[in-house]
Amino acid sequence: MKLFLVLLPALALAAGASGKSELHLFAWSEYVPQEVIDGFTRETGVPVSYETYSSGEEMLAKLLASHGAYDLIQPSDYTAEAMIKAGMLRPIDFDQVPNLKNIAPEFLHLAHDPGQKFTVPYMTGTVGIVINTEKVAGPIRGFGDLFQEKYRGRIVVLNDNREIVSWALAALGLPINDLSPANLARVRPLLARWLPLVKVFDSDSPKTALLNGDVDLGVVWSGEAALLWNESHKFQYVLPAEGAHFFVDLLAIPRTAAHPEEAQRFINYILRPEVSALISKKFPYTNPNAAARRLLTAEQLANPASYPPVLKLDTFRDVGKGAAAVDRLVTDLKSSQ
Amino acid sequence: MPAATLVNAATPRGRAPALSGWLLLGPMLGWLGLFVIAPAALLVVCSFCSRDELGRVVPAFTLENFGRVLDPIYLRIFGRSLRYAGVTTLLCAAAGFPAAWFIARRPELERSRWVAIVTIPFWTSFLLRTYAWIMILKQEGLLNAIAVGSGLASQPLGLLYTPQAVIIGLVYIYLPFMILPIYASAEKLDEHLIEAARDLGAPPRRVFSTVVLPLTWPGIQAGLIMVFVPSLGMFAVTDLLGGARTALIGNVIQNQFTQARDWPFGAALGVVFMLLFAVSFWFLQRRAGAREGRG
C-alpha cells in the first residue's frame, strides 16, 4: 500500500521526464475537434492524449493534484487570472508561436493577462438571451423584458451562480466584477423575483430544453445559441440591453508541464487560419482569429449568436473567495422557493 | 451463515476469529480500509481545514465549516431532502413489497426469471435511463403524446422539471433496491406458517401483520435503508429531471466541490451526513436488538 503510494508520483515523474516527444492536452469537453488533433499528429509526429473536463474548477483541482501530467490546458479568462496570480502558468515563448499575429488585437492584452505573456485566446463567446420567436410575441431586449411574470415556467438559464448574479448586477447598472457584500445585498431582492420564474437551470446543454419545447426563452452560452440558430432560425439571439459580458477561453501551459515545446507547437498549429476555421465549423463560438474569420462562409458569419454586433464588453475577473458568497446567495434563494 | 463458522460457536459472545477466519476476512477488511475508512478519514480531516484563494485545501484548523452547516439555509435544504427521500422510500416500499411477494410465491424456475427482469435496468447506466425519462416526460414527449392523443388532456401537461418528475426518477432508479432484499426474505418465509395462521382462524389482515410482516421485516428494513440513504444524497436525477430548481443536499455538496470551490465546507456537510446515517442506523439496530431480547 505504502510502496504503491510512493511509487505512484515517481512513475508519473518518470513518464513525464522521459525524453519522448508527446503532448498531454487537458481541455473542455466538446471543444477541440478530433480532426485538428489528428492533423497535428500527422504533421509533427507528436502523439496527443486528450483528456477533458466540464468545469474550470475540475481542471484546477486535477491540475493541482497531478504533477506534470498536463502540458497544455484551456482555462477561461478568470481562471487563468487566478492561475497567473498563483504562479501556476509558464510564460509562453512567443518567438515559437509566430501565428499569434492572426489573433485580432482586441482579444490580446486583456485584463486576465495584461502583459500577454501566459495565454493565447482559443475561442470567445458571450452570454445572451435566446427567444423562440414562434412562441414569444413580445419584444425581448434584455433581462427586464425576459424576467416577467407572464414568462413564468418558460425560461431556461445557465446553472452557474456567478453568471446569474452578474445578470442582476448588470440589470441594476452595477459593475459585474464587484461582488462586495453591499452589491450582493442589492441584487438579492431582484434575484428573489427572477429565480422563481425559471423552469430549468442547465449549464451543460441548455439548448435541450429549448429544442424539446419545454421552455421558450433562455439565457445561454452563445455557442449553444448558435447551434440552435443552425437548427432553426426561429431561435433568435440578443445581447441583453442592460449589458453583457464576454468570456475568452485560452490556451496556456502549466508551470509543471513536461513537454512545453510540444505545447507551443500545438498552440502555433491551432492559430493557423485553416485550422482555426475548422474549429469554428464544429463549435460556432466567436473566433478571435482574424485570419481564420476571413475563411468562414457568409452563413457562418451571419449567425447572430456567433458574431453578435460587437460592443465594448467586460470579462469576468477573478474574485478569489468571493465565489463562496455568490454561491451562498443563489443557493439560499433557490431553496427558499 | 458464513459468519457463524468464523467464530467459535461454543462461546455465544464470540471469541476472536481464528487465523483462517482472518484470512477469509482479509480481502474485505482491506477493501473497507482502502475504499471506505481511508476516504472517510480524509473527509473528516478536510472538514476541519480552510481553503485558499484558488480553492486549495489548506491545513489550518477551523470549526467555521461546521458552523455554516447549522445555517438555517442548509438546515432547510436538509429538511426538504429528507422529505424527498422519505416519499421516495415509502413509494418504493408500497410498490416493491407486492412485487417482491409475488415473485417469491412463484415456482422456482419462474422466480429466477422475474429476478432477472428486475435487474435488467442495471445493464445500462442509470444516467442513460434518466435521459430516457426526459424523452418520456418532455413537452413533446411520449406521455404527453398519449395523453393528448387519447383525449385525456386537452393540452400537453408540464411534467418535466417538476418535483413530481424528480420523485418519479428516484422511485424508478431505486425500486430494485427495495424489491430484491424483500424478495430474499419473502422467499425464505415458510408457507406452512401462513397456512397455520389461517387454520387457526386469522383473517388475512392478521396473517399479514403477525406472520408476514415480522418475518419479512429484515428484508424490508434492508430495502428501506438501501433506498433512503442513496436517494437522500442523489444529485444527478434532481438536476436532470427537476431542472436543478429545487436544491437538495446532494446538489449543495456537489456544488461545493465544483463551482463554489469550497471543499472543506462540502466535506463538513458530508461528515454531518455520515454521522446522521450512523446514528439512525445504530438506532434501528438497537430497536431490532431490543425486540429480539423481548421475544
Describe it.
The complex is a heterodimer of chains A (337) and B (295). Chain A is of the alpha/beta class and 337 residues long. Chain A is 40% helix and 15% strand. Chain A contains 14 helices and nine strands. Chain A has helices at 2-17, 34-44, 56-65, 77-85, 143-146, 161-171, 181-194, 207-211, 222-231, 260-270, 273-282, 290-293, 298-302, 322-335, and strands spanning 23-28, 48-53, 72-73, 119-132, 155-157, 198-201, 217-221, 235-238, 246-252. Mean pLDDT of chain A is 89; it is low at 1-18. With 295 residues, chain B is mostly helical. Chain B has a single domain, classed as MetI-like (MetI-like fold, Orthogonal Bundle). Chain B is 74% helix and 1% strand. Chain B contains 13 helices and two strands; from the N terminus they run ααββααααααααααα. Chain B has helices at 2-6, 19-47, 64-69, 72-104, 108-119, 126-137, 142-149, 163-188, 191-199, 204-233, 236-242, 249-257, 263-294; strands at residues 50-51, 57-58. A two-stranded antiparallel sheet of chain B has the order 1-2. In chain B, helix 6 runs parallel beside helix 11 (236-242). The chains are: A alpha/beta (337), B mainly alpha (295). The interface between A and B is large, with 40 and 34 residues.
Total helical segments of chain B? 13
Percent strand of chain B equals: under 5%
The pair of chains with the biggest contact is: A-B, 40 and 34 residues
- Give a count of the beta strands of chain A, DSSP E runs of length 2 or more: 9
- CATH architectural designation of the largest domain in chain A: 3-Layer(aba) Sandwich
* 3D shape of chain B: globular
Low-pLDDT regions of chain B: 1-11
Key features?
heterodimer, A: 337 residues, alpha/beta, D-Maltodextrin-Binding Protein, domain 2, six-stranded mixed sheet, 9 strands, B: 295 residues, mainly alpha, MetI-like fold, 13 helices, 74% helix, disordered N terminus
